[in-house]
Amino acid sequence: MKIYFSGAISAGRDNLPIYQHVVERLQSQGHNVLSAHVADLQVLDREKDVPPRTVFDRDVAWIDECDVMIAEVSTPSTGVGYEYGYAIQIGKPVVCVYRSAQSVRMTKMILGNPAANLKVAAYSTESELDQIIDSFLKNMTG
Predict the structure, then answer these.
(1) Among 33-42, 77-86, 104-113, 117-126, which stretch is predicted with the lowest mean pLDDT?
(2) Hey, which residues does 4 pair with through a beta bridge?
(3) Has residue 118 got a pLDDT over 80?
(4) The overall pTM is greater than 0.90
(5) What is the DSSP letter of 70?
């Protein structure tokens, strides 16, 4: 399955270990993670000279191409919000996951979105995150 994984890059890298876990796990299951660079420790350095239009065109093309989107939305990010909104608008199945810690305040624009192609779920452990993603992907493949 082609998966677009979305997570904050410019907004902060606090969730990098989670991004790495998700991307590595998906790849080990045989999925093609189109945006695996989100989990790259050096992504900010590698992308610093890439023109904004190039990033936009590339990422939109990947969202157009993907079968599903997984968005880690614990860290507020304009880019992640744009990607999630675009994917919902074009009918892609999307799961937004976020840490259930008290320090994370999830936006009501995600929590209140009634889109039929959106699932939103909180997790507190990697195991719980894995279960949410596995269930979402299983529902996509029947």
Answers:
(1) 104-113
(2) 69
(3) yes
(4) yes
(5) E
- Which residue, 52, 58, 72, is CA-closest to 7? 72
Amino acid at 119: K
Cα–Cα nearest to 133, from 28, 40, 38, 61: 28
Nearest to 133 by CA among 35, 27, 45, 42: 27
CA separation for the pair 9, 78 (Å, rounded): 10
- 124 token code pair: 């507190």
Q: Phi first, then psi: what are they for 72, rounded to 5°?
A: -90, 110
Q: What is the pLDDT of residue 141?
A: 81
End-to-end CA distance of the chain: 13
Q: Which residues contact 90 (CB under 8 A, 6 or more apart)?
A: 63, 64
